[in-house]
Amino acid sequence: MTSFPTKLTIAAAITLAASPAAFAQQAQDSDYGGKRVSVVGGVTLLEPHSDPAEGIDIDGGPAPTLSATWHVDDNWGVELWGAADRFNHRVRGPEGKIGTIEQQPVALSGQYHFGEPDMTFRPFVGLGVYESNISNEDIAQGGDHVGLETPRGAIGTVGVDVNITPTWFARADARYMRARSDVNVAGQPTGEELKLDPWTVGVGLGARF
């Protein structure tokens, strides 16, 4: 029968053998977890709503985008996202091109990141509010200037981060914005709304600190 000191010696040996692996695992986890700020730079394609039955079609286009997220913990965060430059859109009517507009959205969203920080693929979802500054409206309508009011509404986000190192990661995301813009002609309200409702697809490279 094994004596108590022998048992203690065996247990101590097992503990000492397991400790380096446990400490290494904790260090690896801490490299990913506990970081509270992440930033992402990338390019995004924005595609407004299109309905030929309404008689107006707005082309989509790309623009550089930036985001910064404050991570409350390893799963929850608050993201500020926006276009670093304007999206340019060509506006077409039944007879072809009738003008161009530009817009530059910015959004504030709450996010939930699934799983553990050290997962290779880490999906996330978000919900928040946004507004988009519309400028340089150049739309012909009987010689009168057509203006669009700043649309505001809800934004939903789905995406995935791909961990490269504890600091660097790649991101792909898609967003949907509910947008209605009041239409003015010659500076006067028309009582009509332009349905924009754009969706976006973006890719980028991020870093966490």
How is the secondary structure organized here?
Blueprint: H1 4-32, E1 37-47, E2 57-58, E3 61-71, E4 76-83, E5 87-93, E6 96-113, E7 121-141, E8 144-148, E9 152-163, E10 168-177, E11 180-185, E12 188-195, E13 199-208
Antiparallel strand pairs: 1-3, 1-13, 2-5, 3-4, 4-6, 5-6, 6-7, 7-8, 7-9, 8-11, 9-10, 10-13, 11-12
Give an account of the 3D structure.
β6 (96-113) and β7 (121-141) form a beta hairpin. It contains 1 helix and 13 strands. Mean pLDDT is 82; it is low at 4-29. The protein is 14% helix and 62% strand. It is mainly beta and 209 residues long. It has one helix spanning 4-32; strands at residues 37-47, 57-58, 61-71, 76-83, 87-93, 96-113, 121-141, 144-148, 152-163, 168-177, 180-185, 188-195, 199-208. It has an 8-stranded antiparallel β-barrel with strand order 1-3-4-6-7-9-10-13.
